[in-house]
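A favour, since you know our structure tokens better than I do. Could you add the entry underneath, on a fresh line?
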Amino acid sequence: MALAQQIHANRKTLKAQLDEFYSCFASKDSVLVTIDPDPDAIGSALAVKRLLWHKVATTSIGIIRPIRRLNNLAMVRLLRIPLTPLDKVDTQKATKFVLVDIQPSHNDLLSKIPYTAVIDHHPQNQEVHADFCDVRPEYGSTSTIMTQYLRAARIKPSQALATSLLYGIKTDTRNFERHTLVEDIEAFKYLFKYADHQVLRKIEISDLSLSDTKFFNKAFTRKHVVKDRIFAYLDEVPSADILVEVAEFLLKIHDICWSIVSGIFQDSLIIVVRNDGQRKDAGRLVRRAFGSLGLAGGHQAMARAEIPLKRVSEAIGSLSSTSIERFVQRSLSPFRKN
């Protein structure tokens, strides 16, 4: 489906979109929903599973990478959400595939799967080839879109589903501090009365382990401030999630408008960018700086790049801490014309 057609499709009524989504499936289908497991994706996948209940034979959720962030682990455990690593799923048994909160072009593994439906809120960089495509980059979360589908289907969400969708909206809008529409607020208000707020509180406070504190210490020790941007390179990290935690924490510093935290994870250089959202575009910045080297994109206030170390080496030669640190700073310097 061409980009113009997809934009036009987004203007259809919710009921028409829901009917179009349902028309892609038959009662004998075995559906596999694939996600990169953050809260918004997990809640959205659970919503797809509920929408297809009694509509198809089976629906399962496959994750493309292990969950390491403690909040997300708490979410899955406390809400008893069934997730299976994609490498342990027999994809040959699936007859239909659904992708939520990410697009095929954003990950090499996902680009190899023939998707029936794609639902996302991230900016679209490439044409999406699927029978059904609903991409709304103006929305703060995919969980908002999925809540609208549930309401169009007249499905009252269970407590677990409402809690997961509510948390997805809260995390992707940073509690409505960034990239938020009235639709996100309306979805939040609708879900609020059905959610388990005691469980939600437990999920939200499960931020860090004691071992994570060393990365905050390293960030403060090695921080480099250029104008209103703070950079921190953390060398090898056990999870890309710690880069997100540090980046969001550093953005709290007075007079800092951009927080850029990078590190090595699974043979890739991961660069996480956060800003205050005031007339800035983090997604555009990282795409221009790193799009030719690897995966790069995001929203106005948050973005991420993943570059294979081989490509980094080709670009800068040495892979020493100093050379990588300088590479990131030089690429995202406020004085560089991006």
About this structure: The chain has 13 helices and twelve strands. The mean pLDDT is 92. Residues 30 and 95 are 5 Å apart (CA to CA).
